[in-house]
Amino acid sequence: MDGYSVALGRHLANVRDERHLTQVSVANAIGISLGTLRSYEIATGVAPYARLDALAAHYGVTALSLIVDAHRSLTNGDPLTLAESDSALIDRALVTWHAARKTSTTIHVSGQQIGCQDFGRALRDMRQARRISRIDLAGRVGNTAGRLTSAENGYARLTLRELATLASLYGDGLVRLLVRLATRTPRSTSAWPERDVHVIEQALLAWEAAKDTLVSSRRRAEPAPPVSTSRAAYWTRLGDTLRGLREPTGRTPPSVTREADLPRNAVAAFEAAKRRARLSQLDAICRVYRASLLALLAHVADPGSLALRADVGGDGASVIASALVTWDRAEVRTAARYRIGRRMQELRTANGATLDDVTRHLATTKEALMACEDGERRFSLSSMAQLADLYRVPALPLLVHVTSDDARPCLGLGGVDADVIVRAAVTWEAAKARTTSTQRRELMGHIRTSR
User: Fold this and answer.
1) How would DSSP label each residue in 5-41?
2) Where in the sequence is the domain holding 178, given as residue range(s)?
3) What value does the mean pLDDT take over residues 86-106?
4) 3-state class of 373 per DSSP?
């Protein structure tokens, strides 16, 4: 067990006891389970920043102070002398870092405006001002250019350790870099006590390392599944199928890319199996060829299942395809994730299932399930299929219900066709994500037994 996680848990318990609060009252107040709060206090779990921020607000302190005071209890350090307004600015910068994705959220602290939507743009501007390419910077930080691009576009969040490496390359410190990235108007930090800045930086890195250590230890405790080789074969089949659709039309990959409004060289990369296509991108390509997205997925997953026809499923095909595309886009669209999460929560409540029931059925954690229901993460197609099994409803209408206002139970499909489409979508997801063939076979078993 990590020393910092123990210190943080002890400090959280002490802060709660000083205010004469019970674990039950605190858990109910911030909307988490009693077991989750207990795991934070006994160091079997490490609270993410959003939970620390909620706890801090309930206790009348800041999340930054909880992290730093826990670190000081380990090192027997002196209290910080940093001004309260400066500490609040750093705390809000950390909140912005945690929420650094495409959003219009703006936070006002001490006369400063902190906008989550500008975090990635500030990363890009800082890099370009130093005339450093993404590939060069990614190599220095120990990351990929693709991940750096996602961070600059607001679709991913760099870790504090990555930001600390970035700060050292720019001749700065982690704390000052965070504030500079998060605030729209520059603010001088040269007067901040160096000792305080160093203590805060070390505390933040210790907190993040404790979280990573806990996740790694949990993964090591689980038996390693066999490495799947079917993902490469899937994308090769998809590329061959897309090429087979394109060549009879006389189009070239660049022309299809333009017609489908896709990134440059996307179609050529898909056909060569060098890039993994999103459902929204496949849907755009199918519209160019006047083909069915559902039939395409089914054919690639099992070439003998369905022909590449545009009328598979009748009127319901467009509804199902729209539902799949909406689910796929929810990975980067907060509103769609929130809507799906809220409806999955309503389904769970309507079926009388508790968080414990669902976490056991999905073999996941309460934190992960709550993050999905709160719209912070997206439910996977495989988890939706398993929940359909738990709620004793067909998987396809469930997917349509949570992604759109159309909840027709049959959708013009027979049970066999519906199963084919669900299997095809799950197979695509398994190939795109880091899902093993063993896990996919287990899921197929769930679908077969639910028929």
Assistant:
1) HHHHHHHHHHHHHHTT--HHHHHHHHT--HHHHHHHH
2) 84-192
3) 69
4) helix
